[in-house]
Amino acid sequence: MKKKIFRSLPLVVALPRMFVISAASAEEFNMQFVHGAANMNTAREVSVGDSIQPGTYPFDIYLNSEKIDSLSVTFIRNDNGVEPCFSAEQLHNYGIILPAPVAGQQCVDLKKLIPDGKVEPDITRQRIDLTIPQTSMTVVPKGSIPTRLWDEGVNAGFVNYNLDYSKNSYHGSSSASSNEYTYLSLSNGLNLGRWRLRENGNYTHDNTSGSHWNNISSWAETDIISMRSRFLVGQSSTSNSVFDSIQFRGVKLSSVDDMLPDSMRNYAPVVRGVASSNARVTIRQNGYLVYSTTVPPGPFAIHDIYPNTSGTLYVTVTEADGSSHQFTVAYSSVANMLREGLWNYEVTAGRYHDGTGGYNPDFIQGTVARGISHNLTPYGGVLIADNYQSAVAGIGSSLGAFGAVSLDGSYAKTNLASGGTKQGQSYRILYAKSLNELGTDFRLAGYRYSTSGYYDFNDAVQERREWKNGQYESDYIDPNDVATGTPGWAQTNNATYYSNVYANKRQRMEVSINQSLNGYGSIYMNANQQTYWGTSEKTRTVQVGYSNSWKGASYGVYWQSTRSQYGYSDNSVNVTLSIPLVINSNNNVIVSTTQLAHDQQSGDSYNTGVSGTLLNDNRLSYGVSTGHTQSGGQNSSANLSYDGSKGNINGSYSYSSDYTQSSLGASGGLVVHSGGVTLSQPLGDTFVIVKAKDAQGVGVLNSPGVKVDRFGYAIVNNVTPYRYNTIALDTEQMRPGLDIPQSIIQTVPTEKAIVRVNFNTFYGHSLLIHSRLADNSFPQIGASVFNSQGRNSGTVGMNGDLYVAGIAAGDKLTVKWGDGPADKCYLQIPAKLDAQTKTMGYQELTLTCQRP
């Protein structure tokens, strides 16, 4: 793989014969192979490390072994040789303390001002190491990246899509039917300057209810870097650090922790479950469909779910035979400590908006937290709305070896739709502790509402929505009335619960424990329970799982118990075994999987199958299985998916004596930018447009399946805002004649930026030239070679040999070893050159270098 390479500095690569290497001495030039006084001087300069000519070159800057900058550095010749030049302003920005007299100087002699300091260029790695004593440094947080390096990106738009089509046909003895379902999720965006405009929605279609478009959210946002803040207008949600999260339409100004370096600064839940067949998992929250996907048989863990707010996630797993089971996942966060001196704040004004109709009051909310001494973080907030007022005050504290805890108390006053006013208090404790030495991660979050008069804002809104005709009407999904084979998003099994009393929340407990068993596997337990005022019913979910591996095989046992507020309950046990059968030289794997399950609602089932991957980077995956369910009998299934450079596709098919189920899916992105339209894999929030002209087919390292298209563009997704991201082209995939002098570029995008990274590419011929002067001597070693456009294309090695790439036929190259008119000569490239092939990546020429 090529790294950033100076075409003026390939001496180490081009001239291995110039070094004599021994175990007892450092590398040095063997001067016996060098002829001529001028060449001897140049060789001596190279041998002692002065192997760069004065000029300006791109370098990475490291301060005390930590990267802090990337910029073009000017090298000048002085009494000490050729050294990099830094201005006083640059060094001041790096946190280096300089005496007042050097202020404004454009080239500071750092080693003279700080005798213990070091400036060490590493030409082969294109980095300069500055070693400065701490006494000469101001306090700069570790990992800080200068904001001037943050890239706001370019103006561009995109569409991110996820399309899923399924068809279910039932041909049982009693009746026959066929249903088709289509689900399309779209995330659209437009970046204009520092503004990011976003819109999320989905389209659904089924035989019964027809077609529907749901606009989930639309908003615009921009960073205010000087305030470490972000301003948003539109539809969004508040944070849940002080109050429970609220969905709204309005405006919000808030601090942004991601702008802080890692040293100064941290949750969306993982949805776990087990499927008995090719199953569809759908997740709802606050009336929204927030996720829908197909999973193969076995345990699954969904990491990329992004709830709109805290609160319960309702998960439905619909098996291939139409049976389904449901469970809930609680979503809340633990104590959020701040370092001393840091502020976090949020101010929101708008209208309550959770995707359902009815009462939507206006409100204004403000929260603040401040890190103070003694590892304390006091926090608080105020919320004022129509018919509702609330205040919170609390404090978080680090308990050292005993973990971290936060305690807060809330007061609320609520005007009820049923008449009268309620006032109450709530007290909350959050605790977190990791016992790394025991492999234990323990988190406890307990909510206790001490009086029946306390309503949180969401409860206060729901109370007014549900009060109808002198009683409360609560709509909910009845899992006992599931339409067979229907995806969760298409379910119409709504039921209504009537009561004379509104069941506001009373007490909630959450426990999460993950325990490593030191070579004997690991066990986890997640449990949550919510009780309510005015009813003995409760919502509860308990999950316990054990997993381990032995000689490549993995196995696990998983148990789950759920109960809803409206009387539904379910219990299930799953046992899984996975054995790898083949792992080849391309790291493709074939795995055999067996699963046994018992579910209170759907009965017993088993499934066994084989799955694997193909292609060099495992982009093609497949699976086949057969099994039996108590409700659907014997069944067989197959699935296939492919991750391509322009998008991903997948398909599955299931069959039994009673039904057939087939599905097709596609996901990806489409980016519209100044260079045209580029198709991609599914887009992340922040991504990079790679431009590399004439580099069609060249891959991007660490981005499987991503390749430069025929227009010279590619999209890279796995980038992190406000952090260094390395974008590297796989130069082993370059075609003959293509030259990419700098194949690695780093970028620091801001949140949701669409950054453009330009790789300079030169396509022509790759040539190994044996050059001589007219008097049969050789051009000076170390001389730079330039094409007719002035591009530095190579360096002369021993015996006049030089390698150049990206050279046009008929071009005239200039070989230059000094500033005088006689310190150069010219190489005329023939107008006709042999065609290049992959087996012979370059052509050899013998040319005379003509002096002026």
UniProtKB/TrEMBL annotation:
<dbReference type="GO" id="GO:0009279">
    <property type="term" value="C:cell outer membrane"/>
</dbReference>
<dbReference type="GO" id="GO:0009297">
    <property type="term" value="P:pilus assembly"/>
</dbReference>
<dbReference type="InterPro" id="IPR042186">
    <property type="entry name" value="FimD_plug_dom"/>
</dbReference>
<feature type="domain" description="PapC N-terminal">
    <location>
        <begin position="28"/>
        <end position="163"/>
    </location>
</feature>
<comment type="similarity">
    <text>Belongs to the fimbrial export usher family.</text>
</comment>
<dbReference type="InterPro" id="IPR025885">
    <property type="entry name" value="PapC_N"/>
</dbReference>
<dbReference type="Pfam" id="PF00577">
    <property type="entry name" value="Usher"/>
</dbReference>
<keyword id="KW-0813">Transport</keyword>
<dbReference type="InterPro" id="IPR000015">
    <property type="entry name" value="Fimb_usher"/>
</dbReference>
<dbReference type="Pfam" id="PF13953">
    <property type="entry name" value="PapC_C"/>
</dbReference>
<keyword id="KW-1134">Transmembrane beta strand</keyword>
<keyword id="KW-0998">Cell outer membrane</keyword>
<keyword id="KW-0812">Transmembrane</keyword>
<protein>
    <submittedName>
        <fullName>Fimbrial protein</fullName>
    </submittedName>
</protein>
<dbReference type="Pfam" id="PF13954">
    <property type="entry name" value="PapC_N"/>
</dbReference>
<keyword id="KW-1029">Fimbrium biogenesis</keyword>
<keyword id="KW-0732">Signal</keyword>
<dbReference type="InterPro" id="IPR037224">
    <property type="entry name" value="PapC_N_sf"/>
</dbReference>
<keyword id="KW-0472">Membrane</keyword>
<feature type="signal peptide">
    <location>
        <begin position="1"/>
        <end position="26"/>
    </location>
</feature>
<dbReference type="InterPro" id="IPR025949">
    <property type="entry name" value="PapC-like_C"/>
</dbReference>
<dbReference type="InterPro" id="IPR043142">
    <property type="entry name" value="PapC-like_C_sf"/>
</dbReference>
<dbReference type="GO" id="GO:0015473">
    <property type="term" value="F:fimbrial usher porin activity"/>
</dbReference>
<feature type="domain" description="PapC-like C-terminal">
    <location>
        <begin position="768"/>
        <end position="828"/>
    </location>
</feature>
